[in-house]
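for the record, two folds in this file. i put them one after another cuz i was lazy. first one right below, seq on top, structure tokens after. the second one comes after a little note so u can tell where it starts
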Amino acid sequence: MMYRLFIIILVVLSGINTRLSAQNQCQFEGNMIDVVSVEGTVDNMYTEIRWNKPSSVSSKDLGYVIHEYVGPFSGCYTPLDTIFGMNNTIYTHNGYSSGGYGVTVFDSSGISSTFPRYHKPPEITEIRYDTCDFTVHISWTRYVGWEEGADYYSVYTVTPYLMTGYTPENDTSFSFAWEPNTYFYVQADTKDLSSNSRSKRYMLSDSVFSSRYDTIRLMRIEQQSDGKAALHFAINTTTEISAFHIQRAAAKADFETIYSFTDKTQNTYVDNTATEAYQYRVIAMNYCGNIICISDTLQNFILSMTPEDNKWKLQWSPRFTGSRYTFSLQRTKPGSEDVNVTGNTAIDAISDMSAESSLEYCYRLEALTPRGSISVSSVCDFYIPIIAMPDAIDPFGNVKNVKTGRRRNQFAPLINAHPATYKYRLSIVNRNGAKIADIEKAFGSNLQTDFWDGRFGNGDAVPEDVYIYNLEVEFQGGHKEIRTGSVVVIYQ
């Protein structure tokens, strides 16, 4: 039995192809189909074909052949599938034929009926957006197949679908208000309202109107110490928007445009006047001046550091009202270490600088938003060590001070810093202003000879008396300190 069925199917399909090749003139007779409609969801659409069982059925008739209409130059119809059983009058095509569909009867010798009129649902051909009045204009083709045509067309939008409006049969265009994430379709109804056919479903483009953050994203701001802020952003290049503006606003002030551009591939901009805290955003406007897309808002933070009692006090701009940030602070030089943050301040202790080859301290502040955007600010400054000077010297004293590491016959500044981080010039004169000695220490000197030993240039010890010194110290970074005072030469 299975063998006989297999033979019948082969014979039928062979006969179908033979008859189709002879129908190149696309001469149609009758109208078997009731309606063709696109059904299902947006993500899983299918085409449903319904037809009427012929009024007279031969005992030789086996079922129906579903065809796709392909036009006269391609043979009019192409067989799509075979349906056995004359009572089966509904077929679901997991797809959509843009040409339309036809149904014929077949028997053991092939197609036994004439080719009827093909049917095709209304098809949306144009979607235009008016970004000034936020409306959508659509056009479509008429339903093909009903002898008396459609009575009217309806436009349905949103999920669940609601009728937005309708047009008479001879009007195939309509306008309606744009809404985000909106699906829509066109439905044709017969004059007796017994059948209706739906077009494919479409989703309105969010790239034209949408204010969603994924169209424009302001991802990063880098505040620089020279009063500049570098903005990093991204624009979805598939968007139809082409007029973009970078805006900023000071505290309790309105946003103002500081830069405009049209290149969707641009992703950076530097604000050269960011000397205070601002909120920044990137917007898109349509040709009539309406804002149709806004990025997330991101603030720059001005970071400062001040020495206080052997500590650095760090402060930065308070966040703008309504904004949310998570702050983290790190010392990046010397070494690398996280610093505890309290509000918009932090305290970092200054370490023993005698072992550090640099006096520069650097910090990096990161402010992270809940959406992952980040605002970064960095600042550096040089620590200025305390300078102490001995008040007496004994040219013949060899006893070493356990605290300073110097002998009593070595007069030089005591600086809590690595020798590589500073240089100085020390001049000694007597009461009358006569020069006694000039000592210079260079960067990196080991301090073994950079002191006054209480003697003249010829090596003779100076007499006991009060002498005047002048000291000029220059630290890394160019900062200078000057000290003037007296030192007593005493022999013990």
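(here's the note) second protein begins now
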Amino acid sequence: MTAAPPSVAELAGLWEEIRDTLETDTGMNLHDERQERLAEAFRQFVHDNRLVSLTDIRERLTDPARRGAAIEEFVSHLTVGETFFFRNADHFRALRETVIPAIIGDRRRDRTLRVWSGGCATGEEPYSIAILIERDFPALAAWDVRILATDISKTFLEKGRAARYRAWSFRQTDIGNDPRYFKQEKDEFILNERIRDRVRFHHLNLVYDAYPSLLMQTVGLDIIFFRNVAIYLKEEVSQSIVRRFARCLRPGGWLLIGEVEISHRLFSEDDFEKIRDGETILLRRRDTEIPMTYAPAPIVPLWRVSHWTSSSPLEGEAGRGGRDAPAVTPHPASPSRGEEIQALQQARSFLADGQVQLAQQLIDRAASAEPLAIEAHLLSAALADEAGDLKSAAESLRRALYLDRDCLMAHLLLGMVLRGGGTPESARIFRNALAIARSMKPAELIPYSDGMCAGRFIQILEQMS
């Protein structure tokens, strides 16, 4: 007979440890009136995972290989995760009348637009942005427009990728009845594939994951949405997140925060100008230099979805000997090493300002000056994705793997390229990377990742697998 799960009362000795663990990993405020919600989330977590002892519970929350998944499961129970299309109509009015017209004026030369929906829940917000851009700014069809949507909850992200919604998601708009964007099947509204492919969903923990990040493509952004997230967080955590957002935005970039969340304590006036637009308050990054201290490692880039045939140039062996890697002739380190480092540093600065073409020239110069520069190949892969060139991205990553067959970042990114191209080889790439990572100590740092440890890397790979 199976023992009944321990009750909250029986967990008195473990309760504060659990709460502190969750607050540390998520930045959420779980004291006072929110303890009741935490207790309910805990009961659901224990029930869903059939945990019957204190030892089982502690191991799930402390084991480096399983902690991340456990935390994310808790978050899905602790947060509402409920939103709807075009929520807060005045924000979208300001986006249409003020923000995007200003960006069009600023970015007319390079014709790029980068948007990040941080804490995207089930996807209604980033899809609303994509619909507004297509509907109200037809001229942007000729631009390179990218929308990144991130959340800490894997469950929410899966729903967002599925892009199937019920009537409650349209309670303040009739956009669900527009056949240009949705098709109705029984009680579900299915988003048009054209709009769905303009948004890239990705797991990201705003407390300790990577941003700004070059490979994650969270530098040089034009707009960040951070709405209805700070209400769950400790004030000091929200302040830290907003400071990092300032480094993600290009000078003149825009930050939109929930109207009930914004306060003078949330942001620094050295970083942002506060602009009142109708009933909405907008934050615009000042045209001043903000120190670019790169926080933990990039997790994965946003690889453009593309459809390849079975003869796709992306297929082939990757790493672990590099049988199919492009030919690279190894040679001793040369005096050009200093030039390579300087070029990559300048490239990072240009990317932070959204100047992709100048960054590409510098990265190409670095790779030419020092062909053994793995970082140059990794950055080249990210920029090839910017151009929608998965073949070139894969070639750059294979060069990196030829130089170091155990380069975990190259394995991870190549796996993402292959998966984005519909190539089944990606599963094997991820398995190879997992095997390498599991041979490392959990706290050991991953090279070229700006500080991500092997334990976190394993969590990311397990989620992708």
